[in-house]
Amino acid sequence: MAGNGRRVLRGCVATALVGVIGAGAAACGDDSADAAGGSRTGLTAALGTAPEADAGAVLTYTDVTATRRLVKQDKKLYGGLASYGIPEVQQAQYEKLPLKETHGFDENDVKTSLQIGSDRWRLTGRFDVNAITDGMKKLGYTEGTTDGGVLLKNPNGGQVAVSSSVRSLSMSPDAPPPAFAAPKGSVADDPAHQAVARCIGDSTFYATFYGKGGKSRTPDVTLYAIGATAEADGTSRERLCALTVSPEGAKRTADKLRAVTASDSGKRFEGATVDAGSGGTPMVTMEWANNPQALPGNQNRTMQLPQALMSGR
Length: 313
Prior knowledge:
The protein is of the alpha+beta class. It has two domains: about 30-170, no CATH class; about 190-310, no CATH class. About 25% of the residues lie in helices and about 20% in strands. The protein has a twelve-stranded antiparallel beta sheet with strand order 4-5-6-7-3-2-1-8-9-10-12-11, sandwiched between helices. Helix 8 (about 245-260) packs across helix 10 (about 305-310). The model is unreliable at about 1-40 (pLDDT under 50).
C-alpha cells in the first residue's frame, strides 16, 4: 500500500493480525485490553502481549514515560536507562544522529517497551505511520502491507511493523516482529509469570524476567525477575522475586542472596533485606535501595545476582 492508500493507517485499526505478523485478538494495539477482554495495566499488560511460546525468553519491560521523567529528574541515577529499551535510541545516541529525522519517531512517541529475547522489541505509544514508513524506506527498507499496519523489510534481514499505536521490530530474518494485538494465550496467563509479576508490582518502571525454565537458574527456581520502583521524591528501590519449587529450595536460594549481601564490598546492596517466603513453593524476595553503586538496571550489565542464583548447580 503506497501513497494515499496508507494515509488511512493514522486511525485506530481493530483488525486482528494474521499472516506474517501473527494471529491475535483485535486490541488495536491497546495494552489495557487483553485477548479475553479483561483489563491489564503496566507490566502485566506488556506481558500480555508476549505469546506463551516466549515464556522461556528473557523479557525486559520499560515504562518509557516514567523513565523519561526520572532521567530528567536525576540523570546520574537513571541515566543508564536513557535508551528506554529502544534499540534505535541507543544507536542514534552512539552515532549522534537525529532519530526523528532518520526513523520517523523518537522516545517521546513511546509509552512502553518490551524486549523479547535478544532480537525482538514491541513498543507502544503514538506513531506517525507515514513518517516512519518514509524514514525506513530511505534507510533501504521495502514497504509491504499487513492487516492493521505497514510491514517494512530490510534486504539484509530484519523487519519493522508499525501501526498508529504499536511499533515492533525483529532483527532476525527468520522471526516476524511481535504482533500488534495481544495473543489469545500469553506469558501473562502463565501462573509462574503471574506470581512473579504480582511480586514485582505493576508500578515498576523497569523489570527483567529471566526466562521460565531457562539456564540462568538452579533447579530450585522456576522463574525470577528484578524490577525497580520509584517514589515521588525520585528515590528508587529494586526488588528481586524468585519463585522456588520447595521450602528447601527457597532456603538455598535465600542463602545465596544473603551471601551476596554479606560479601558486598562495593556497597551495591547495603541495607538489603532477603526473605525466604512461605508455603509449598515460596517466593524468595530481596530488596535494596538504588544508589550510585547500585543503579537501576545494573543487574542486566553486571549479572551479579543472576550469577549468584546460578552458583552451586
